[in-house]
Amino acid sequence: APVEPAEIRSQLVEAASCRELSASLSNPPVALIRRRARLLYLPAAGGPSGARNSAVVALARSRGGPLVLSRFVGMWRRARVTRESALLWSAAVVTPIDGGWASRLPDEAPCLRRKLRPIACPEVFLKCA
Asked: pTM surpassing 0.70?
């Protein structure tokens, strides 16, 4: 279905507002980066954002690492990342994982169905480490 002109105008106004806001955002304080890195769960977390945090923690513990992370976040906050870089850093691999045999549904004849679960593995900070 075609997009209504009013919706396009509304999106343009919202985009202009976001550009104005992004110009005033600063890098997060280095102390905040250190504190957040200490609180990260090291192994992969469950759910759609199950990235390994160990690479982020290693970078945060390295000399100058918190400053690098702070500047990295600041670039994203201010939309100072090129399209190509955004594609590289936000890329993810989605892999189907076999979860075993699916249980029968009520009123269903026995069948040979497998449970497949998609697992997203974002690579963002692995490239950084």
From this structure: no
Backbone angles phi, psi at 118, to 5 degrees: -75, 135
Digit-coded pLDDT (tens) for 7-49: 888 888 888 887 787 778 888 899 998 988 888 766 655 544 5
59 is written with which tokens? 């970078």
Position 96, amino acid:
P
- On whether the CB atoms of residues 74 and 26 are closer than 8 A, the answer is yes
List the beta strands (DSSP E) in the chain: 92-101, 114-122
Say which amino acid occupies 62: S
Is the CB of residue 112 less than 8 Å from the CB of residue 78? Answer: no
Per-residue CA distances from 56 to 34, 78, 121 (Å)? 10, 21, 15
